[in-house]
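Retro notes (design track)

What went well: tokenization of the new backbones is finally stable.
What didn't: we kept losing track of which sequence belonged to which structure.
Fix going forward: every design gets posted as structure first, then sequence, in one message. First example under the new rule, 201 residues:
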């Protein structure tokens, strides 16, 4: 029990550090991130947040703090999308049967547009922040790349689907979101006007 509490405390500190790091990066890149960051009032109200994705290059990941959580935006190229079909037999929930995403993201790529993957970057084991590892396939043929949680070794594919035989029980969560335009995404609200993210336990 004490070990579990210690693990959760460590995970919380890592998440806090990630959020602070994201804010620090925003301060260093004012023109770009100013648009991303909600005002203090908006943040206090936990309102939906608009993200400009026009600068995200193929294979790149951006992390945006939202409601105290890291939200990832990853632009997948065709090789990354092709990898999703190769690993299904190794996944715990390849068809996303568990309620970890809105209905419009219950598909192989777990996103509205295959190219852009939006997810909450919190491991479903004890809440650490996994690292983005898009190129692991070159050194490990059993893993086509994805997200790796260093806390206890959980692995996810490039759609955030968890592998079998790792501590994490569920796929990564996908927040409600919608495209405002081809280059803008609204996090926390979808086409039906429903606000709020899927709850994070
Ligand atoms: S928090 Fe334990 S594997 Fe991610």
């Amino acid at each position: 029990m004490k070990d579990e509490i210690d693990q959760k405390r460590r995970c919380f500190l890592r998440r806090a550090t990630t959020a602070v790091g994201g804010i620090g990066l925003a301060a260093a890149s004012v023109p770009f991130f100013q648009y991303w960051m909600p005002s203090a009032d908006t943040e206090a109200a936990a309102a939906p947040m608009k993200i400009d994705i026009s600068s995200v290059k193929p294979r790149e990941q951006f992390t945006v703090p939202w409601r105290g959580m890291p939200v990832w935006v990853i632009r997948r190229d065709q090789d990354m999308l092709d990898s999703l079909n190769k690993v299904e037999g190794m996944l715990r929930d390849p068809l996303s049967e568990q309620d970890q995403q809105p209905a419009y993201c219950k598909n192989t790529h777990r996103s509205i547009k295959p190219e852009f993957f939006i997810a909450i970057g919190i491991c479903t084991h004890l809440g650490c922040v996994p690292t983005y590892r898009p190129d692991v396939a070159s050194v490990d043929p059993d893993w086509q790349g994805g997200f790796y949680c260093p806390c206890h070794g959980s692995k996810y594919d490039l759609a955030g689907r968890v592998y079998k035989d790792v501590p994490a029980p569920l796929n990564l969560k996908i927040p409600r979101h919608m495209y405002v335009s081809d280059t803008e995404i609204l996090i926390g609200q979808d086409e039906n006007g429903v606000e709020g993210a899927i709850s994070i336990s």
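Added context from the reviewer: Residues 11, 123, 125-128, 149, 151-152, 154, 167-168 surround FE2/S2 (inorganic) cluster (CB under 6 Å).
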